[in-house]
Amino acid sequence: MGCEGLARLASSTVMVLGLGGVGSNCVEALARGGVGRLVVVDHDVVQKSNINRQAIAFQSTIGRKKTDVVRAMVADINPDAQVEALDAFVLAEDVPALLDAYDGRADYVIDAIDTISTKLAIAEYADRAGMRLISSMGAANKLLPECLRIADVYDTVNCPLCRIMRKEGRKRGIRRLRVLYSCEQPVRVPVREGATRKERSNLGTASYVPPIMGQMIAGAVLRELAGLDQA
Fold this sequence. Notes:
Radius of gyration: 17 Å
Helix content: 25-40%
Shape: globular
Largest sheet: 7 strands, mixed
Order of helices and strands: HEHEHEHEHEEHEH
Number of helices: 7
Distance between the termini: 17 Å
Strand order of the largest sheet: 3-2-1-4-5-7-6
Structural class: alpha/beta
Low-confidence stretches: none
């Protein structure tokens, strides 16, 4: 990346919304890549069920706030990096105030949140404000990392979440949304007998898919901030 590229990274601020399988692995790669300031947002604690895919999930971290674990992880990787940790569950109505506070300060925003209404609100804000954004689409029931792609959401195929984002994005007038998605047809998994629809018991996540997604998003952001790629 060269000295100039690394200097750009060191002076950059990246906001990561959501510290799950994609977000936590993305933060790790950004810290290792030399980003100087990270703003991380999540309200959850580490749970045992997170251990199969999250960079911050270990037996030793179960029950701890994800933002606290991420702050410690980044400090252990790069003590010079600054971490602003926001312990918050972001709803759609919270997005304008949150992003207003960082408009002009965050060089890139990464959406690794699961809630569709919040993802749409983030996309709508970023499109209107010209904020650089990349949004992670669904990792559930996917097995083939070679099918992962970075594209505009309107050019995506075979992703149920992308389908919803396209439909709702058009309604909201979102002109462009850069996403990481999988073109793989989701693996069909039966719903557990007796499970309610709310439980979503037919969704499973392979241990390696969210980490690869987080690394790919980090790679795209690092290259662009270093001046090597243009979105």
